[in-house]
Design goal:
There is one protein chain. This protein has 526 residues and is of the alpha+beta class. Among the domains are: 123-235 and 286-420, SGNH hydrolase (Rossmann fold), CATH 3.40.50; 432-521, no CATH class. Helices cover 24% and strands 25% of the residues. It is built from ten helices and 26 strands. Strands 4, 6, 7, 9, 10, 11, 12, 13, 14, 15 and 16 form an eleven-stranded mixed sheet that branches. The protein has a four-stranded antiparallel sheet with strand order 17-18-23-22, with no helix packed on it. Strands 21-20-24-26 form a four-stranded antiparallel sheet, with no helix packed on it. The longest helix is centred in the middle third of the chain and has 39 residues, at 236-274.
Length: 526
């Protein structure tokens, strides 16, 4: 069977497709029945109040039902012409522009048809993606929402929410909320993390900042990656097997899901009111026909439609649904970053990752599954242009969805300001381990980004030490300049040290900027 490789109006080529990859024959027929041409239409990122990326060429594209017709794009004193190709696709690139906070009209004309979008500005554009903690709306955080509503609104902060859409192949069209300009009655709809990131960057740089929020709660990283890339990873056979098995068990699990969700809500309420530990796992929605949780479907339906919209970079807050799969995640995250970059002609654009916060994992505070996933997230640091924001000092360790999204957003902004916008006076990182050496019965841990190294408690928390027997014991730590001496009366000859390497560690080591020491371990033991 052959099928168009975009399945929308952008018929760029044909490639063989196995029809069994579609969730059902009905879904396949519906996909093929999509109209392939429309009167003059622009791609989903273009609406009123849009933010265009400064300092790079800005592609403007869309579709038309008149192959061969001339399309004219006008904005900011520029006029560009292009023609509609045989498939109904057109594209024109505006020349690079400086930031401009004064809204202007974006006009696209084809013969007698004109599409006009108002109040379009030029600034910084970021694609924000991941699962529920990125999706979490500011309006769901009552305290933060009320505080921000009481402040003067910054109309230069803008937000575009992408509808939840899964697709079997990359598509060009997807529904969005349209760009919203920040105002007391709109900010509740913004991603909380995205809002605080944009607020910090806009206030510092005095330019518009736009957030494209393509996120979906409960989703795993493999849903956000192109299938051809997934197939090259070592974990693909196991992943594909899980998907095939999920399709077989889906009818039963779908029927059981309402009862499981009700039990989960009851368990959460009993934890809140009685302190009763939760013993059941979170009832993740089952994968099945049309599921957004299937491999590649969210990349196809929610990320692909925005390429090649000009961006500064991407923000990523995800990993909760991959806890327990840290070995695979170590390969998947860098592969995903590279695959997104391949979809945009922007080189190694910045990719900023929120490391998972401290979480008791329903009573398993001293377990290590979350620590191992955090360690896997650090694999992003080996990819050029990537960085990790550490939020291990979160104040809500019992909450899978920390309500306060300000720390995550603002620490992402610190990275952007220092690493991308050359604001060298901005400290973006807490202490990071650089070396560990033996000194008698102690281990010396040397840190970078450790100016003003201090503890917020009399005894430095979070360190463990082990000897050759690989048994870790709580350790005492003493600050010595930008290093820490770690020892334990139970370990005469230490060989390994860990810091904050449990699900919900107590942490107290910070630098003068108030940023926490990153979790680490010096060993590679299982």
């Amino acid at each position: 069977m052959w099928i168009a490789s975009g399945v929308d109006c952008a018929l760029i080529g044909l490639r063989p497709m196995n029809p069994t990859r579609f969730s059902s024959l009905g879904a396949l027929l519906a996909l093929l029945a999509l109209p392939c041409l429309a009167a003059l239409e622009l791609a989903p990122p273009f609406t009123d109040h849009a933010v265009l990326q400064r300092d790079v060429a800005v592609p403007v594209w869309g579709w038309s039902d008149k192959p061969g017709a001339t399309v004219t794009v006008s904005f900011g004193g520029q006029t560009k012409e292009t023609r509609v190709n045989a498939s109904g696709l057109w594209r024109a690139d505006l020349d690079a522009m400086p930031a401009n906070a004064t809204g202007s009209d974006l006009l696209v004309t084809e013969d007698a048809n004109t599409v006009t979008y108002h109040d379009v500005v030029v600034g910084e554009v970021w694609l924000a993606s991941g699962q529920s903690n990125m999706e979490w709306a500011l309006g769901s955080s009552a305290k933060s929402h009320e505080e921000e509503k009481a402040r003067p609104a910054n109309p230069l902060i803008r937000h575009l929410r992408v509808d939840h859409v899964g697709a079997d192949l990359p598509v060009g069209r997807v529904k969005t909320s349209g760009w919203l300009s920040a105002a007391p009655d709109t900010i509740g709809k913004f991603s909380g993390v995205g809002y605080f990131f944009a607020q910090s960057v806009s206030e510092k740089l005095k330019v518009p900042v736009g957030i494209i929020n393509a996120s979906w709660g409960g989703t795993a990283i493999e849903s956000w990656m192109p299938e051809p890339v997934l197939r090259t990873t070592r974990g693909w056979p196991a992943l594909d097997k899980r998907w095939q098995e999920a399709m077989k068990t889906w009818p039963r699990k779908y029927a059981d899901q309402p009862g499981l969700e009700a039990a989960w809500q009851k368990a959460q309420e009993e934890l809140r009111t009685k302190g009763t530990p939760i013993t059941m796992p979170w009832p993740r929605p089952p994968m099945g026909p049309g599921s957004g949780f299937a491999p590649a479907r969210l990349y196809n339906g929610m990320v692909a439609p925005f390429a090649p919209y000009a961006l500064r970079g991407a923000l990523w807050y995800q990993g909760e649904s991959n806890v327990g799969q840290h070995r695979a995640y170590t390969e998947l995250l860098p592969a995903m970053i590279q695959s997104w970059r391949a979809a945009w002609p922007l080189g190694d654009f910045p990719f900023l990752v929120v490391q998972l916060p401290n979480y008791t994992d329903n009573g398993k505070a001293t377990g290590r599954a979350w620590a191992e996933l955090r360690e896997a997230q650090e694999s992003a640091l080996h990819v050029p242009g990537a960085a990790v924001a550490v939020i291990i000092d979160g104040a809500e360790p019992d909450n899978l969805h920390p309500v306060d999204k300000r720390p995550a957003g603002e620490r992402l902004a610190l990275i952007a300001l220092n690493q991308i916008h050359d604001q060298r006076n901005v400290v973006w990182s807490g202490p990071v381990v650089q070396a560990v050496s033996r000194e008698g019965a102690a281990l010396r841990v040397r840190f970078s980004s450790a100016d003003g190294l201090k503890s917020t408690t009399p005894e430095i928390a979070g360190f463990e030490i082990a000897g050759a027997d690989r048994v870790f014991h709580p350790a005492r730590a003493k600050i010595d300049g930008t290093s820490v001496l770690v020892s334990s009366a139970d370990v005469a000859e230490p060989v390994a040290v860990r810091h904050a390497f449990v699900n919900a560690p107590a942490v107290s080591l910070f630098n003068a900027a108030g940023l926490p020491a990153a979790p680490f371990r010096s060993d590679d033991w299982n």
